[in-house]
Design brief:
The chain has about 325 residues and is an alpha/beta fold. About 40% of the residues lie in helices and about 25% in strands. The chain folds into three domains: about 80 residues, Arc Repressor Mutant, subunit A (Orthogonal Bundle), CATH 1.10.10.10; about 100 residues, D-Maltodextrin-Binding Protein, domain 2, CATH 3.40.190.10; about 100 residues, D-Maltodextrin-Binding Protein, domain 2, CATH 3.40.190.290. The protein has ten helices and twelve strands. Helix 1 crosses helix 4. The protein is globular, with a radius of gyration of 23 Å.
Length: about 325
């Protein structure tokens, strides 16, 4: 039977369970990702919690919203019908917040925001700059450090917020997190390399290459170490101790290969180097972290602003 022909529930969202805008937002993210695990990671909720909220929404509507299989999910006709309404609901909610935020622009305060090196590829400076313009009475300071240092600074109160890098399974710990962007680990090699015409490479294919690794204790070194361990791979280390664009120069001459985040690598790439996907994929997350007990008006307005920016860029 067509799922739109069988309607045994209420004709609105006013059931016994409380359906919040956040649950509607969860529905939208799940509809976009078509994967419960990925949606849960993007939303920073547990998978059981997300499943419970979706079932709660389906119960209130009296209809299934997703066709579930072992590998993926798809919207049912009811889900497709709800989708534009859900999009409008979240848009109206953001517009309402924006309308009442006009008064909030008179808020005074100071925010210290930490960023990791190499933020240009992720447009992190854009929302920070536009927030500063929209809230001129809030003083903005920024600091740049590796993610491990930024986490300590947020924990101690030296930073109010920090944009940090992480991989799947990183514990949230004492912080609240908001997913800002994603990237993947990639290989940089000479455009003359024998594998240069391949669409992707595996660690097995490049096991005999000399690897130029990032400096120890940095974000990228930790991400590379995580990827090697996950793949059961022990790299051969190239005999160079260089950083940044010097690394790219050595790679371009075919003296070694190196690993980098794909968006950043594309940003740094030269005509004699190429960026190559690595299989299996190692996902890297760019998260905004902050203390769970954050209560400042300036901080809450910054958080709302960033969340709205993320929603707009997802549309």
């Amino acid at each position: 039977m067509d799922d739109m022909e069988h309607w045994d529930g209420p004709d609105n969202l006013d059931g016994q369970d409380n359906i919040t805008v956040e649950i509607i937002r969860e529905f939208l993210v799940l509809a976009e990702t078509k994967n419960f695990l990925q949606a849960a990671e993007d939303l920073f909720v547990s998978q059981p919690s997300l499943s419970r909220h979706i079932m709660q929404l389906e119960k209130n509507l009296g209809l299934p919203l997703f066709k579930r299989t072992t590998r993926t999910i798809e919207l049912t006709k009811a889900g497709a019908r709800l989708l534009p309404y859900a999009q409008r609901m979240t848009k109206v909610y953001e517009e309402c917040n924006a309308a009442f935020a006009q008064k909030a622009k008179d808020i005074n305060g100071k925010l210290t925001i930490g960023v990791f090196p190499g933020i240009a590829a992720y447009n992190i400076s854009d929302p920070i700059g536009s927030f500063a313009k929209e809230y001129p009475k809030i003083e903005i300071d920024s600091v740049e450090h590796e993610s491990c240092t930024l986490k300590k600074m947020v924990s101690s109160g030296e930073c109010d917020f920090a944009f940090v890098l992480g991989v799947h399974g990183d514990p949230a710990g004492e912080f609240a997190k908001l997913r800002f962007a994603e990237d993947v680990l990639s290989a940089l090699m000479s455009s003359e390399h024998p594998l240069a015409k391949e669409k992707s490479v595996s660690f097995d294919q490049i096991q005999n290459e000399g690897f130029l690794l990032p400096l120890k204790n940095g974000d990228l070194h930790k991400i590379c170490t995580y990827a090697f361990k996950k793949a059961g791979f022990s790299p051969k280390i190239a005999p160079y101790k260089t950083t940044g664009r010097v690394n790219i120069g050595l790679v371009g001459q075919g003296l070694c290969i190196t690993l980098h985040l794909k968006k950043n690598a594309t940003y740094l790439c030269r005509s004699n180097t190429i960026v190559m996907d690595i299989k299996p994929t190692t996902k890297v997350y760019i998260d905004l972290i902050f203390r769970k007990d954050m209560a400042s008006a300036a901080g809450n307005n910054f958080l709302k602003y960033i969340r709205s920016y993320i929603d707009r860029t997802r549309e």
